[in-house]
Design brief:
This protein is α/β, with parallel strands linked by helices and 376 residues long. The protein has two domains: 189 residues, Glycogen Phosphorylase B (Rossmann fold), CATH 3.40.50; 168 residues, 3-Layer(aba) Sandwich (Rossmann fold), CATH 3.40.50.2000. Helices cover 38% and strands 20% of the residues. It has 14 helices and 16 strands. The strands form three sheets. Strands 3-4-2-1-7-8-9-10 form an eight-stranded mixed beta sheet, with helices on both faces. Helix 1 crosses helix 14, helix 7 packs across helix 10 and helix 11 packs across helix 13. The radius of gyration is 21 Å and the shape is globular.
């Protein structure tokens, strides 16, 4: 198959969407498919054998790491040259709308996927009154696709409830070699704890954005004697968070990648994830693969990953004491924590990117075998 992939974010950006796309493209190419990636220009022209067509764009004012890349007639020329069997649009917003437009104009079957719960993000940026309008726009975009893929069962239901049709589940995946308990490291633990490896170590990995609700970790940190918090990642809310956590034992690490990131997961005592806006929460799977027990909000796609008391704990996101109690319970019982680490690793081994991409290929084949589905 020849697949044209439109995405609003790709390398060198670091986030869960890019992680999924990197592995997906690599495995599609391995399976003998050919992929052409349209993305905001990040300086890449090729990735794992796939052509990357960078589209110039402007940084988002409130999130400079993200670029607004606008479609142009040049996209049509590239599509005509590549002759795709199928177009897959990831999180259609700006550039992705070009993918939808040309899929219709050139009569190319269209698949879309939903990775970021944008309607819920609005309230964190003072735009909550626009949620209804955004769902309307999402329906207009996604209902032009023959198939809409979501990364958790909760999001399949959410999109269906909001009038988006032809939804299905794109299974999760994780790199169980990059993220492994054997990467536990005294040196990394000392780095994360700022030279106090004997102290309880809480870890967060991900984007430092308002929608991630990282401020909710502070009461947990303050409730546990001598606890330390390492925040791995970066984002537009970092400066606010540095002020908010001033005076606490919080270490802003910045970005880590590869085995270094795997070592951070494996060297922590608890992975704390307070976000209520996750379509899946890929970092949870990475933490579990590294044998790090997780304490996460019972919201969005997270319950698809975490089984309470077996491979981690879920807490009521409306109840601050619930998160504190779960973390305290996990830290107070080393034997239980050891069992949770083993179970978390075993759960992660059920999921790999090869299987997730094989499933995606079957979805593509099914779409190509169907007659066109008219947009409602």
């Amino acid at each position: 198959m020849r697949i044209a992939l439109f995405t609003e974010t790709f390398l060198p950006k670091v986030d869960g969407i890019v992680t999924r796309l990197k592995h997906t493209v690599e495995h599609l190419q391995r399976q003998g498919h050919q992929v052409l990636i349209f993305s905001p220009d990040g300086g890449l022209t090729e990735y794992k054998g796939a052509i990357v067509y960078g589209v110039s764009g402007l940084p988002l004012p409130w999130y400079p790491e993200l670029k607004m890349a606008f479609p142009s007639p040049a996209l049509r020329r590239e599509l005509n040259r590549f002759k795709p069997d199928l177009i897959h649009v990831v999180n259609p917003a700006i550039l992705g709308l070009g993918g939808i437009y040309y899929a219709q104009k050139l009569n190319i079957p269209l698949v879309a996927s939903y990775h970021t719960h944008l309607p819920k993000y609005l309230e964190y940026y003072g735009l909550g009154n626009l949620e209804g309008l955004l769902w309307f726009l999402l329906r207009q975009a996604h209902n032009r696709a023959r198939l809409n893929l979501c990364t958790s069962s909760a999001m399949v239901q959410t999109l269906t409830d909001h009038g988006i049709h032809h939804t299905d589940l794109w299974q999760r995946g994780v790199d169980t070699e990059t993220f492994h308990p054997r990467l536990e490291s005294p040196d990394m633990r000392s780095r994360l704890t700022q030279g106090h490896p004997e102290d309880p170590l809480l870890l967060y990995v991900g984007r430092l954005g308002a929608e991630k609700e990282i401020h909710r970790i502070k009461p947990i940190l303050q409730a546990i004697p001598n606890a330390r918090l390492a925040l791995v990642g970066d984002g537009p809310n970092r400066e606010n968070l540095e002020k908010y956590f001033a005076g606490t034992k919080t270490n802003f690490i910045g970005y880590l990648a590869g085995k270094e990131l795997g070592s951070a997961y494996a060297s922590a005592d608890v992975f704390i994830f307070p976000s209520r806006t996750e379509t899946l929460g890929l970092v949870l799977l990475e933490a579990m693969a590294a044998g790090c027990p997780v304490v996460a909000a019972n919201s969005g796609g997270i319950p698809d990953i975490v089984t309470p008391g077996k491979n981690g704990y879920l807490f009521d996101p409306q109840d601050e004491l619930s998160a504190i109690a779960a973390t305290q319970q996990l830290l107070a019982n080393p034997q239980q924590r050891s069992q949770l680490r083993q179970n978390a690793r075993q759960e992660s081994e059920r999921w790999n990117w090869s299987a997730a991409t094989q499933q995606l290929s079957r979805y593509y084949e099914n779409v190509l075998g169907k007659t066109a589905i008219a947009a409602p």
